[in-house]
Amino acid sequence: MSRRDQIRMTDAEVQAYLESGRDLQVASIGADGAPHLVTMWYVVRDGALTFWTYAKSQKVVNLRRDPRISVLVSSGATYEELRGVSIQGTAEIVDDPEAVLDCGLAIYERYWGPVTSDLERDGVRAMGAKRVVIVVRPETVVSWDHGKLAGAY
Questions:
Q1: What angle do CA 55, 45, 141 make, to 5 degrees?
Q2: Closest Cα to residue 126, out of 150, 144, 100, 145?
């Protein structure tokens, strides 16, 4: 078995890892062909990585022109702890206000806790007024978990 095969996560491990991750590195392609890389908060919805962002942000400008996207969730402070999932695919831009609010509420709850008041809900709605949702539609998924090597490098 190759080293690559040894560290590859199963589909279930990938899903669990993405659901437990915190930061999503998002790369789009600038007009000059250079990568544009940012960090976003995200949620997994219907099995897809999803985040919201300002409709006029550079990443959205890039994705409207060229919908190819690459994202990464990774962790680990030492070699044997390195874990990650890298996805290349296509970005779907959703601008429906209710879908934006729904995604915003999911992100709010994931990072700050339950929405318990109309004031919080109205705050998320206000934050979403100028935002869109990006859904990552995977084409290639690569994963690694160096912990599977059990110290054998």
A1: 90
A2: 100
Q: In the chain, what are the domains?
A: 3-97+131-145 (2.30.110.10)
Amino acid code (one letter) for 143: S
Sequence-distant (≥ 6) Cβ neighbours of residue 129 within 8 angstroms: none
- Show the tokens assigned to 26: 């998002």
Alpha helices in 3-140 (DSSP H): 3-7, 11-20, 58-65, 97-112, 118-128
The neighbour count for residue 46, using CB atoms within 10 Å, is: 6
Give just the sign of the alpha carbon dihedral 31, 36, 42, 43.
positive
pLDDT in tens, 62-112: 999 999 999 999 999 998 899 999 999 999 999 999 999 999 999 999 999
Quickly tell me which residue has 């544009």 as its tokens. Answer: 36
